[in-house]
Design brief:
The protein contains 5 helices and 4 strands; from the N terminus they run ααβββααβα. It is of the alpha+beta class and about 140 residues long. β1 and β2 form a beta hairpin. A two-stranded antiparallel sheet has the order 1-2. It has a two-stranded antiparallel sheet with strand order 3-4. The longest helix is centred in the first third of the chain and has 26 residues. The radius of gyration is 31 Å and the shape is elongated.
Length: about 140
Amino acid sequence: MNTNPDENHFFSIPKKYLYFGLTGLLFLLLVWRLFYLQIYATQKYYLQSQKNHIREVVLEPLRGIIYDRDGRVLVDDHPAYSVYVTPYEIRHLPRLLNRLGAILKMSPPEMRAYIKRRQNGRFRPVRLKRQISFKEVS
């Protein structure tokens, strides 16, 4: 049995200092990671958020043109576009309504009343107009 205190110096460190040291090291790692995400990786995550901001939904048609027994077209297969607004994502409502009003040929007060009437929660989109042309969309 070795009773020399110099040989067992590592094991003579009180456990509380060891725990404080490990906790401090983990805290510094956490602070470094937060610093990295906030300062160095900002641009990367900003671009990812912008890609997620605009949602394009492409729906393939389920069927083609439907004819009656005389060969007349009953249902035609053409793209249909709609304009939706999510109230939570609107930053400057008057400016947006003025720009959309010019394109959709609706007055801003009419659109504001329509949004208020059709709104079912801040995060759910409200359809302003449906069956708009490709020219209006672009």
